[in-house]
Structure formats: C-alpha cells, structure tokens
C-alpha cells in the first residue's frame, strides 16, 4: 500500500523535481521536531506573538537565552527563502545556482540583521526590542513556508506564480508591521530610511533576480 502511494505521488509530481529542496525540507522538519521536544510551546509562541500586536517581545526571550533554537530557525528561514527563489528562477535545478542564491539571500539577511540591531539600539525601551520583534518575523515565515513549499513541490503544474505571491506577501507583511512598530519610537524620516534601506532595497534586488531568470 505504501509503495502504491509513493508511486502515485511520484506520478503526480513535476517531471523535474528540485532534489535539493527535499534535503532542505528534511532539515527544517528536524528543526521543528527538535524545538517541539526541547521547547514544546516555542512554535505556538511564535505564532501568538505575530498574531497579537500588543504583545511586544521581551528581551529575556531574545537570542541570548534561546540561542540554539533561534539560530536554527534563522538558518531554516534562509534555506527556505533560498529554495523558494531558486525554484522560481532555475529551470535546471542545479546545485551551483542554489549556492549562488544562498549566498545572495544570506548576504541580504546579514545586512538586514545589522540594520535591525542599529534600529533596536534606538528604539529599545524597557522590555521592548525591535531586534527581537523583527527576527521573529523570520521565524514566523519559516512556519508558513515549510508546509506550503512542500505542497507546491508535488503540484503537477507550474507553481512559480504562487511561490512569488507567497514570498511577496510575507515581505509586504513584514514591511508594514515593522513600519507600524517603529512609528511609536522614531521619526517619520528615520522610518522611511529604514523602509528604503532594509525592506524595499532587498525586495527590489529579489524582484530583479526573479525577472532576469
């Protein structure tokens, strides 16, 4: 029975499946299992924090006290973001192009990370941290990306448009939510500066990458 199901899935899948994606999905799945075993409420807390705007992110729950889980979730985000862009921009699904996009996404991520830290030094008040607020976006997107990307991998149709819409919607959500958060602490000028340098500019680079595939 199980062999029949696997054979049916294979027949439904696209003719040329991105092999690297399976390894990414397995890695992120193992990360979720680790988090569920070590911190049973961790994944649900991420979803709740994104759902409730008033629930700001306590500095005590930041990267320093949950370094392993946070780092694993950030790596998972980078890999899934890379996988999404790679499947849209690549037709051959070769590993070399995956590595190039991985370097590109990682570079943008590190630049944004430095920017988040800078703006957090301006906005942090008592137990409120923009750095933690923004990092949690990536963790939340990881929860969204994994099941959707797995499902899209086995759709026997061209899912590139769906992938673009999902990544674009997450980027727009993060942009709007971060702008609203920062409005409480910084001037309109600094808010625009943040949006242009750390949100819009990386998005434009990604759009250019997709359009020049």
How helical, in percent, are the residues? over 70%
Number of helices: 8
User: Low-confidence runs (pLDDT<50, min 5 residues)?
Assistant: 2-13, 53-65
Question: Overall pLDDT, averaged?
Answer: 77
**Residue share in β-strands:** under 5%
Computed over alpha carbons, the radius of gyration is 18 Å
Please give the number of β-strands. 0
User: How many discrete structural domains?
Assistant: 1
User: Helix and strand string, N-terminal first?
Assistant: HHHHHHHH
* Class computed from helices, strands and strand pairing: mainly alpha
- Please report the distance between the alpha carbons of the first and last residues: 41 Å
Describe the sheet with the most strands.
Answer: none
The geometry reads as: globular
How would you describe the overall organization of this protein?
There is one protein chain. The protein is mainly α. It has one domain (21-211). It contains eight helices and no strands. The longest helix is centred in the middle third of the chain and has 29 residues, at 95-123. The termini are far apart.
Offer a concise description of the structure.
The protein has 213 residues and is mainly alpha-helical. It is 77% helix and 0% strand.
Keywords:
213 residues, mainly alpha, globular, disordered N terminus
């Amino acid at each position: 029975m199980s062999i029949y199901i696997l054979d049916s899935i294979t027949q439904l899948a696209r003719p040329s499946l991105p092999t690297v994606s399976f390894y990414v999905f397995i890695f992120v799945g193992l990360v979720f299992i680790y988090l569920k075993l070590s911190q049973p409420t961790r994944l649900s807390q991420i979803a709740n924090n994104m759902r409730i705007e008033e629930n700001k992110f306590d500095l005590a729950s930041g990267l320093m006290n949950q370094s392993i889980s946070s780092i694993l979730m950030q790596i998972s985000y980078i890999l899934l973001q890379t996988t999404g862009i790679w499947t849209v921009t690549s037709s051959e699904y070769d590993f070399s192009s995956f590595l190039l996009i991985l370097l590109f996404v990682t570079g943008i991520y590190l630049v944004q990370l430095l920017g988040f830290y800078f703006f957090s030094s301006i906005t942090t008040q008592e137990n409120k941290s923009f750095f933690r607020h923004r990092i949690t976006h990536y963790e939340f997107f990881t929860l969204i990306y994994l099941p959707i990307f797995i499902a899209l991998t086995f759709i026997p149709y061209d899912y590139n448009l769906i992938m673009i819409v999902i990544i674009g919607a997450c980027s727009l959500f993060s942009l709007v939510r971060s702008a609203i958060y920062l409005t409480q602490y910084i001037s309109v000028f600094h808010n625009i500066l943040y949006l242009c340098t750390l949100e819009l500019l990386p998005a434009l680079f990604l759009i250019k990458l997709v359009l020049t595939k």
